[in-house]
Amino acid sequence: MSQELRYVGKGVPTESGPEIVTGKEIFTDDIQMAGMLYAKMLRSPHQHARIKSIDTSKAEALKGVAAVLTHENIYQYIPHVLVPDTFLLESETFYALDSEVFYVGEEVACIAAESEEIAEDALALINVEYESLPAILDAEQAMKKGAIRFNTRMDSNLVGKFEIQDILWGNPEQGLEEAEIFMEGKYSCSVQTHATLETNCVICEWSNDELRVTATIQSPANLHLRLARALGIPQSKIRITAPRLGGGFGGKPGYAESRPCLILAVLAKITGKPIKIRLTMAEKLACTHTRYPTVASLKAGAKKDGSLTLLQGNLIANEGAHALIHGITDGVACSRFDTYRIPNYDFHAQAVYTNKVPSGPMRPLTGCECFWISESFFDELAEKLDQDPVEFRIKNHVKKGDIIHMMFSFPHAKSIVPGGDAPLLIGMAAQEFGWKGQWKGWRKTLQVNGTKVRSIGVAVGNNICGIHYSTVILKVNPDGSVNVGLPVAEMGQGLTTATSQVVADALGVSQDKIFIHHETPLAGFAYGSIAQCGLPLNVAAAKIAAEDAKKQLLEMGAANLKKKVEELETEDGFVFVKTEPQQRIDFPSLLFNHGSYLTVVGRGTAHPSYMDFDPETKLPFQERSYHVGLAEVEVDTETGEVQILRAVTGAECGRVINPRIVEQQMQGSLIMGLEYALYDGILHDKRNGSILTASLTDYKLPTILDFPPDSKTVVSADPDHAPTCVAYQAKSMSEAPETFVAPMLANAVYNAIGVRIREGPLTPSNVLKALGKVKADIAKHGRRKSHGEPD
Amino acid sequence: MASQISWSFKHFDAKTVDEAVKHLIDSEGKASLIAGGTDLLNVLKDRILPHPPEAVINLKTIPGLDTIRNDPHGLNIGALVRLRDLASSARIRDSYPVFWKAATSVASPQIRNMATIGGNLCQDVRCWYYRTPRLIRGAVVCKRKGGTKCYALGGDNRYHSIFGGAQGCHAVCLSDLAIALICLGAQAETSKRTVPLEDFILPGVGTALDSDEVLIGVHIPPPETGSKGAYVKFTTRKATDFAIVSVAALLMFEKKKCKEAKIVLGGVAPGPWRAESAEDILKEETVDASTAEAAGKMVIAGAKPLKENKYKIPLVQALVKQAILACL
Amino acid sequence: MDKEIALARRIKLVVNGKPVELEVGDELYASYTLARALRETMGLTGTKIGCDHGECGACTVLMEGEPVNSCMILAAECDGKHITTIEGLSDAENGQLHPLQQAFLDHFGFQCGFCTPGIILSAKALLDRNPNTTEQEIKEALSGNLCRCGNYPDILISVQSAAKTMRGESK
């Protein structure tokens, strides 16, 4: 670094703070437009059905109703195409509106009216005749030959595979032979959903023939591509703005919203008015995507010396009725099982279609689902090897130079860890926790208070640092202020703040001169505020754009100050001579001197880590952020209640851009993971797959009182750990910190009660069952004793 | 526009109880009463009723229903007294700690600032089938709504009754105030009559209110000397939740022995569940861990748990024991 | 049905110190709540609608100084009420931020910011009553305000910092 960093590394305040605390910050639903219409969806009461007829005449006749769309009339306005998935492949099952419905709650029709109330009244006037069809909910059943078909037009319930979705490494036979110790188990956990307080909201409006969408979208560019194709219009004629989101966590990814956006775009066109839909919390919880119900059977082999020889596994992910990210689920799931150095793998994952609400990404895609499985399993293996679970992880965790699974299998199966030292991090966190002094061995309690038992546990997690390309456009205005077009959303993860810190240092301008907007196509294109793309891709692209702009300014400065470019530097909006700083010129003057109305445009494109290759092995790199957590829990063996008493969470950050934001992500993920581990989650009725937890009374979010009373964060911040991360070698922080939380608690509960709960969550009911306290036959409890009769 | 598809209603601010009653009579049973509104507004927003009310009658505009006052026979609490006023009443905290604890445990600070004791006692059930919002999959007409089927049977019934159904409905009573007040022998005073609170709450139906009747207050007899009470509420989160199981216990001690006990449970049956067999065990006994445990076992005598709620059996035992020991 | 009573009504309330008149029709919906009136009729969008069912606290406003869920109150029943929204906290004349607002800026009291107005108002009601408050009291006062981003540790620190300021102690 030729210059000290002024903004990067500091806990600068988050952007938009004054607007947020005064209520001035605009979220999507705050936007009102003249003549705005409101939309409501009619949703299927059936799990799987054909629509025989649909009569909207009474609804259309209701005063205040402007238009109604169904599968029968929508294709007058748009081509009848499948709504494409992220990678513009055919998503096998997803039309704007369809004549076959595949889950309870699926959209059947949409009403546009003058008010939400009129729209909802009109829904009851739509007459639909359904023909009920056989349906299937259980993924394992759906995989079997002859199983009921979830979709009458498709031959298989298996989600098509995209490139390599299994891990087949080394020689599994040999691995089996060499093993002296074996471990087997089948694991699953609950189903979490995003439940952001701001639900999904979309506004569509046409301005001449340009479609303008303002929506709660983490990835405007993602949605942009889909809408263009589905509407049959050029990408240049669409503008998508993402205002600040009231939380995302994968619940507003862009591709999941294709359907309402598409429908509203058509309604806006035919009515000539702007139109808004805001999902109710019930719709958000019961009709939008959730985590994947996931189950896996694993088998591992190890030698007595503690080295691992083999991992075999079969994982089944319940995709639900639509593959929102076509063919990716199983490949990504495999990447959750490559945490440890194992030479021989025989691991298979399969995503399966069923008739339920689609599953999809949540912080991170398949991450918590699979780490519950993986980290519970490897904890059991560590016990079989009679190793301290922290020592086991330090010894076996992959680090720089080790081979891991290529998460998106493009087309490589393997990749290499470019930098990073997870064992170092684990040691640091364990030390902060005081693990050595506390660990007395497996299933040893730290304390017993009456019916309450305490013990400790540990788990690790990780996630890829971003995928796909990101392109950012930066403009230095004639007055020296800077616009950065960032085509992804701000949702409180600190992206805007980090971007302006990085741009401030990279360009040499003060942070308050930078304004970031989130609008496609003017801003550039990027996959989104998903998959931890923030720092390594979106901010990286902004840095490259800033450097591009700086280069142009230095060249102008060289001409103006009559110096060579190498003699110059920028800071605070000036170009100055390094050896004589008083020889300088400010950006506005520089621009004006070179030409009136001159502006500088910087362009930056960042590529993901796996587009770079290790020269020795020729394998692509795959940068991931590594995390660990240790917790002490107390379990009441009479009621089954689990309390976290304290936790230490650790993160490998590379360089820290903003330490306070890092801490926020770690703490926020801790409580989100606690919810995943301890609460019911999303519950489906087994008879028709409908979601029962359709309110925040039933789908529980932790309150401030539920936050662990004692939690600390530890950060391993060495830039050398993130060699491929262009934005000052800063690793992502936003998703991976949730991955280890649930298994950390599962492992601690195991040590406390001595019984392993493989099928989560760790609810009182499941804990009591594990303790053998829930008896099928309660007759012997039921007899009424007479006075004085002995037990 | 009293049409079937419209969920709009006429709104009346009643100035007296008689006026409220008159509106009820005029609307021929198609009106709802609104106090705090924290239950009614959700019921209406989600359109879960088979038929929308044509009118909503506001009780908050009736003066005099929101006071807590002594009377010769104990304490009289107006139906419109808010939960937060119960929680901040030193008289209630000191004389009726079981009730006070129940009142402070309800919902959130915001809800307690709006919700009333009357509304809490009259609250509708929380069964997730019953409460399915119409918007997400159309109307769900279960047994309680006049349909033929209780969807909890054969469905996910982990939070439903372990003591059978009432009128074919297996949703449980979750009114913290009802559980505690029945323990205290409270009475419900309406515009027509005064009845014991346990007769006011009708399992499987709701309340005993006629279509032209308004709940106007609750009466609690004076606390008995030597009585000690406890309210134990088992929830998922540390705040806000309805109970999974709740226990109100009131023990009357005389010379170190329990003379009489009252134990009432919530979250286990369609109405508040009076655990009489457990109460009998404690009569004339020294209360200790052993008798408390025995009482816990008696509570689940005759329980008929459903497929998903068998865990409530050991849970109830543990919580009853806890509640009894908390009275020492 | 008594037709004489069912007429359009004028609701008079005071919002952030200013008198406001709302005309409500004779046919109401459960969804035309104080929250909707504030946001759509009065243009005060600082109050957020989250769950719209009184379960998340995002819509918290102060009514007669006490926190309530504005999504659970019919606009038609607000006659004579005094409401404070987040817009009413900073000084009307010079725009100076309330100590709570400043504290949330200084101590990273928000992530996405959607729950923030509601949280600040719940905290204000607590500190107005008693700035000498314990950690447990703060948590209990905020127990009806969910933060999905899980920013609770920094929310607590922010409120404690504001309490210090309001007690007159040095920063």
How would you portray this structure in words?
The complex is a heterotrimer of chains A (791), B (328) and C (171). Chain A is α+β, with helices and mostly antiparallel strands and 791 residues long. Chain A has 19 helices and 31 strands. Chain A has three domains: 148 residues, Aldehyde oxidase/xanthine dehydrogenase, molybdopterin binding domain (Aldehyde Oxidoreductase, domain 4); 188 residues, Aldehyde Oxidoreductase, domain 3 (Alpha-Beta Complex), CATH 3.90.1170; 342 residues, Aldehyde oxidase/xanthine dehydrogenase, molybdopterin binding domain (Aldehyde Oxidoreductase, domain 4, 2-Layer Sandwich), CATH 3.30.365.10. In chain A, the strands form seven sheets. An eight-stranded mixed β-sheet of chain A has the order 3-5-1-12-9-10-11-23, with helices on both faces. A five-stranded mixed β-sheet of chain A has the order 7-15-14-13-8. In chain A, strands 18-19-29-30-31 form a five-stranded mixed β-sheet, sandwiched between helices. The termini of chain A are far apart. Chain B is α+β, with helices and mostly antiparallel strands and 328 residues long. Among the domains of chain B are: 92 residues, 2-Layer Sandwich (Uridine Diphospho-n-acetylenolpyruvylglucosamine Reductase, domain 3); 100 residues, CO dehydrogenase flavoprotein, C-terminal domain (Enolase-like, domain 1), CATH 3.30.390.50. Chain B contains 13 helices and 15 strands. In chain B, the strands form four sheets. In chain B, strands 4-5-10-6-7 form a five-stranded antiparallel β-sheet. In chain B, strands 11, 12, 13, 14 and 15 form a five-stranded antiparallel β-sheet that branches. Chain B is globular. The mean pLDDT of chain B is 95. Chain C has 171 residues and is α+β, with helices and mostly antiparallel strands. Chain C folds into two domains: 86 residues, Beta-grasp domain (Ubiquitin-like (UB roll), Roll); 68 residues, Orthogonal Bundle (DNA polymerase, domain 1), CATH 1.10.150. In chain C, 30% of the residues lie in helices and 15% in strands. Chain C has a five-stranded mixed β-sheet, with helices on both faces. In chain C, strand 1 and strand 2 form a beta hairpin. In chain C, helix 2 packs across helix 5 and helix 3 packs parallel to helix 5. Chain C is globular. At the A-C interface, helix 1 and helix 17 of A face helix 2, helix 3 and helix 5 of C.
